[in-house]
Amino acid sequence: MEQILNTIERSNVELTKEDFVSDQMVKWCAGCGAHAILAAVANVFPKIGYRKENFMMVSGIGCSSRFPYYVNTYGFHGIHGRANAIASGVKISNPKLSVWVATGDGDSMAIGGNHFIHTIRRNIDLNIILFNNMIYGLTKGQYSPTSPMGSVTKTSPQGTIEHPFNAGELVIGAQGTFFARVPDNNIKLMTEVMFEAARHDGTSLVEVLQNCIIYNDKVHAPITSKDTREDNQLVLRNGEPMLFGAGNKKGIRLNQTRLEVVTIGENGITESDILVHDQFQQDPGIQLMLAKMAPPLYPVAMGVIRSAMYPTYDDMVEDQITYAKANSKILTVNDLLNSGDTFEVK
Amino acid sequence: MSEVKNVVELEDAVIKFVGDSGDGMQLSGTLFADTAAYDGNDLTTFPDYPAEIRAPQNTIAGVSGFQIHFGSKKILTFGDICDTIVALNPASLRANLKWTKKETIIITDSDAYDDSALEKSGYKTNPLTDGSLKDFKIISAPFTTLIKECIKDLNIDVKTTYKSRNMFALGVAFKLYGKTLDHTFHYLEKKFATRPQIVEMNKRVVKAGFDWAATNPQLECLYNIPNAKMEKGRYRNITGNVATAWGLIAAGERAERPLFLGSYPITPATEILMEIVKYKSLGAKVFQAEDEIAGICSAIGASYTGSLALTTTSGPGLSLKSEALGLAVITELPLVIVNVQRGGPSTGLPTKSEQSDLYQALYGRNGECPLIVMAASSSADCFYSAFEAAKLSVEHMTPVILLTDGSLGNGSELFKIPDTKDLPKITAPLAKANDPNYKPYNRDEKTLARQWAIPGTEGLRHRVGGLEKENGIGTVSMDPINHELMVGLRAEKVQRVANYIDPQEVYGDQEGDLLIVSWGGTKGVIRDSVIEMKKEGYKVGHAHFKHIMPLPKNTTEIFGKFKKIIVCELNSGQFVGYLRITHPEFKYNQANKVQSLPFMIHELKEKYYKLLEK
What we know:
The complex is a heterodimer.
Chain A (H helix, E strand, L loop, with lengths): L33 H15 L6 E5 L14 E4 L5 H11 L4 E7 H7 L1 H10 L4 E6 L2 E2 L5 E2 L23 H7 L4 E6 L3 H13 L4 E6 L11 H4 L1 H7 E3 L7 E2 L5 E6 L2 E6 L21 H8 L7 E8 L5 H15 L5 H5 L5 E3 L1
Parallel strand pairs in A: 1-2, 1-3, 3-4, 4-8, 7-8, 9-13
Antiparallel strand pairs in A: 5-6, 7-13, 10-11, 11-12
Chain B lengths: L5 E4 L2 E9 L4 H14 L3 E7 L14 E9 L12 E4 L2 H7 L8 E5 L5 H6 L16 E5 L1 H8 L7 H6 L1 H12 L5 H10 L4 H20 L5 E4 L8 E7 H16 L3 E5 L6 H7 L8 E4 L3 H13 L3 E6 L1 H16 L4 E7 L16 H6 L8 E4 L5 H16 L2 E7 H5 L1 E5 L46 E3 L14 H16 L11 E2 L3 E8 L3 H13 L4 E6 L1 E3 L5 H5 L2 E8 L4 H9 L6 E4 L8 H13 L1
C-alpha cells in the first residue's frame, strides 16, 4: 500500500498491531462479526502510519459502539445516534487527527439518521465504519432500518412492514463522496477498503455486512457464505472489468440505462462488453446502480464503490480562518472590544 | 412662530418608537440610544418585536417597537411606563397605549390615519380627532406631506420617501429631548457611503423633523436630561447577546484554548451564534449544526479534543440537549451551555422573556446529574457572566449552564470596555505529555476536577464515555460501590465551586425587616424598587443571585439577618422552590409574574408593603 500524504503527522517508528491493543476485555459474543472489524482496524492503523496518538475513535450506542474501548487510541463512547455529531466536533476542532467512527445500523440510520446524512453532506473528513447486522443487538433483537421487509423479530412478530434503507443509496443520496462495502468474513478486503477510506479526503463510509450470531444469525449468508459468495458478490477494483462468478465468467454490462448480468461467451458477449469500474467518477449514476444491486438478479457489489474528490468541510473551515486572520483588523479580543462605535467618558 | 421654548430639566425619560415591522423602528430606536449615549446619558434599551417577520401591514400583530430609558442617573431598567411614544401608524399607537400615563407625549404621523389603516387597527373613529386621546400630549404632523416637501428636488420614488418617516419622527424626538444630529449624520454617511442621494435624503428628513419640532406650538416645552456621572473610560452600547458572545470569546483567549461553538438557530439566542461566527480572525470555529442535539454533541467532541466548547440555545433547545448534557457531566468535560430563556412551555412565546427554565437547568436530566448553573443579571453583565461560566467550566472540568433571557439578550445597556489583561487568567488543568501517573479520572485534591488530556498528546491515550467509570483509572465500571462514590464525587465537585466564587452581596441594609431576593435578568427593576423603598425609610436589603448551583457560601448567613424574605421571579416560584430545598430553615414569601412581561416597580412595592405591614 502506498503512503497516505496529508497534514496528519506520521509516526517516525514502524507501528504494529500491538500498538493498538487495549487492556480491556473484548466482550462481544463469540462468533460476532465485530471481532473481524476489530482485527481489520488493528491491521490497518499501523499501515496508515500516523502517530498512534493521532488516531481518535468515536462511537454512539450499541454493540458496535463498544469499539473504542477495545482499541488503544484516544476514544469517545457517546450516546445513542450521536457518534457522527460528536466526531464532527472532534475533526473540526482538530483536523490533524485521524477520526474513526464505529456505528451500527440503528445508531446511524435510525436514531442518528439526521446526523448521518448531514455529516455526509458536509463531507467532513471522517472514516465511518457502519456495522450493518440488520438488527438491534444490544437491546436484544428488534428490527432495524436495514432489516429486510418481512423480517420476523421481537417487535415484528408478523414480519416488518417497512422498506429498509440501503446504506449505499442513502450515502449517495446525501451526496456522499466515499462508499465501500465489505463482508465481515473477508478481513483482507476490509483492511484494504479501510486504507482507502483513510486515504480519501472527506466522509468515508465503509459498510460491513456483519453477522449477529445471536439475534440475526446468517442474515448475510446468501451473500457471504462459502457456497454463495462466488455468484453473489462482485468485488470491485478500480479500472478493472466487473467480473465475478466461477472462473470470472459472469460480468456486469450497461444495457441502455440499466445494469445487466451477462455471461462471457454467451450471446456473443466478450470481456470488452463488461463495464470497467471507475470509483473516482464524480457523477454517481453507475455507482448508485452498483450500490443497489442485490440477489436474485444481481450480485452484491463489494469494495470501494465510490471515491469522488470534493473539498472537505474541515479544510474549508481552516481556509476561512486563515483568510480571516490575514484580512481582519480584529486579531485580539481587545481589538474586538474597541471596534465599531465606542465613546470616551472623561 | 417663535423658536424660544421653555426647557425643563429631567432626571430620566422613557421613549418608545413603535410602528409596523419594516417601518424602521429598530433603527430609529438604536440611533436615538446611541445619540443619548454619545451625549453622556446612561441608558438601557429594549426591542419589542413580534414573532412574525412581516405580519400584515397596519395590524396590531405587526407592531414592532424599540424602547429607551435614558437619564442622568444610573439606569437599571428599560422602564415600564413611557414618557413619550413615537407611533408611526394607528395600530402601533393602539397596541402601546397600555404603556402610557396621563400626559404621555405621543408623536405621530397624521397622514397614516386613513380609513383602511384605522379599520385594520380596530379603530372605529380617528383617535386623533375623536377626543379619545385628550389625556395625552399629542404632537401630530403629516409626516409624508412634510417629507415630500423637503426632498422634492431629489427625485426620490414614493416608496423610499415613505420609508423615511422614521427619520422624520427621530428628528422630532431629538429636538424634544435636546439631542444633536451629529451622530445620526455620521451614521448615515457611513452606512450609505456608496449612495450619496440616500444620505442626502435621510439627512434632510431628520433635519426637517428637528426643525419642525423647533417651531411647532404642539411642543409646549423641550426637555434636557443632563449627563450621567459615569466612571471615566471607554464605553459602548451593547446587547446581552453580543456581550455573551464577546465574554465567551474573551474566555477562549484568556484560557489559551481554541473556541468552538456548535449551535442551531433559535429565537432569541441566534444572535450569539451570528456574532461569534464573525470572528474567525480570532480562531473561532462555528458549526451550524443540523439540530440542537448535534449542536451540543459537536461541542462535546470539540471539548474532548481540547477546545473551549460552547453551545447556545433557548428553552426548547435545552430540552433537546438534555441527554447530551448528561454525557458532558459523566465524561467530566468543560462545556458552556447558554440558554437565552423565553416564555414556555413548548414553543411558548418565542420573542418574549421569562425565567421559567431554572428547574430545567437544575434538574432536567436523567440520573443524578449536577452541573454549575449561573444567571446573568444585565445586558452588560452577560459579558462577565459568560466569561466566568467559561472559567469555572474549564478549571473545574464540568459543564455550566448560563441562563440569560430574551430581555437581557435583545436589550442593551452601556458597557465600560475592559482591557483583557485585567480579566482573570483561566488555567486549564491540562495533563502533561507522557505523564506516567496520568489516569483519566484522577482528581485534583482541592477542586476534584480531573485532568484534560488532549488527543494528539503523546503518552495519554485513553477512553471516556457515557458508561459509569471507575474513579481514578477511568475504565468502565458497573460496580455498585464505585457508582455511589462517583455520584457523590460529581456532586461534591460542583459544590466545591462555591470556594471559588465571590460571596453573595447585599445591597442596602445588611440586616433589617425584609430581604428582597432575585436572580437573573430582573436585577435592574428590583434594584430600582429597593432604592425607592430605602428612600421611603424602610429597612430592606437586596440579594441578587448570579450563582445558583452552587449557591454562595454565605447565603445562610445573609438570610438569617432579615425578619422576612421575599423571592421575586418571573415564573411561578422556581428559585424559591430551590431555596426551600437547599435552605429549608427559612420561611420564604414570593412575588411571581408569568405574563412574559417584566416586573413593574409599583407591583413589587405593593408586595413589599403587604409583608412589612404584617
